[in-house]
Amino acid sequence: MSIGLNWIIFKNRLTLVVKNLDNKKIFDERIVKKNKNEYKIWMPYKSKLAAAIYNGLEIFPIKKDSILLYLGSEIESTASFLSDIVGENGLIYCIQEKDQSEIRNMKELAGKRTNVIPLIYEIRHPKEYSSLEAKTVDIIYADIKDKNLLEILLENCKIYLRKKGFLIFVIPTSDLIELDNKNNNLGRKINDLEIIQIINLNSYHKKHSIIIARY
After folding, report:
1. Strand 208-214 and strand 193-200: pairing?
2. Which domain CATH number covers 200?
3. E-assigned strands of 144-207?
4. For residue 72, what pLDDT is reported?
5. Label partner for 3 (CA 20 to 30 A): which of 50, 105, 174, 179?
6. Per the domain annotation, does 4 fall within a domain?
7. Residue range(s) defining the domain that contains residue 183
8. Residue 128 has what DSSP assignment?
């Protein structure tokens, strides 16, 4: 488990929290103070990545100083928490397309955190954002809706993800069957991806799962 993540007892329940990077509230996060530290409650009903941790994510590769490529939604409830985890020397490249509310959230987050770089590009054309200062990233996190999801992610991995880097992506659970039919070695490798774990998120996000893979 990452150093930035903690479990605390809050209202008699084991609760996932992230240590607040700068003791400032960015969105409408719930803040708790414990042992002279300030923490943000990471709610699994709002963040699919938090839900994956609650549902047994075994490897959480995002750590202090990590460099991420963040593709898609949940800026307010996921990207902002990852900003706390990677810290001042980490970096998150946030790519958004047309969702105006997410673009606003992305810009608001970047305005308050120097470790978030906001970019507006078509995720389907990753070569368009090849001007990233960091030529490779440690992790790609993706929560996007597209019928060509796997092809898009593999292209992003090919261009930006370092060797042995991690891909974490949200997928409709129903698509796992189709994915398995196309790749009868699901659970081992899909093209250049070694599948590490598949987590069903149905208890928090119906009909969704998360896959974590190593490139």
Report:
1. antiparallel
2. 3.40.50.150
3. 161-172, 189-190, 193-200
4. 87
5. 105
6. no
7. 45-214
8. G
Q: Which of 118, 139, 121, 138 is nearest to 130 (CA)?
A: 121
Domain count across the chain: 1
pLDDT at residue 211, rounded to an integer: 94
**0.85 surpassed by pTM:** yes
- Which strands sit side by side in the sheet containing 116-120, from one edge to the other? 116-120, 91-96, 67-72, 137-143, 161-172, 208-214, 193-200, 189-190
Bridge partners of residue 15, in order along the sequence? 8
Q: Could you say which residues of the chain have pLDDT below 50?
A: none
Domain assignment of residue 169, yes or no: yes
- The answer as to whether 20 is a domain residue is no
Residues 6+ apart with CB under 8 A from 54: 16, 44, 203, 204
pLDDT in tens, 61-108: 999 999 999 998 888 899 999 999 999 999 999 998 877 888 898 999
